[in-house]
Amino acid sequence: MISSESAPELLPALGRNLTFAVFERLGLAIVAGRYDETAFPTELELSHRYGVSHSVIREAVKMLAAKGLVSVRARRGIVPEPEEAWNLLDTDILRWLVERGLSRGLVVRFKELRIAIEPEAAALAASAATADDHARIDHGLKEIVAARRGGGNMTEASVAFHIAILTAAHNPFYAQFQGLLRATLGASAHFSGMTPSLADHASVSEAIRAGDPDRARDHMRRIIDHVLADSRRRSDRGLLRRPAR
Question: Do residues 152 and 146 lie in contact, with contact meaning Cβ atoms separated by under 8 Å?
Answer without folding.
Answer: yes
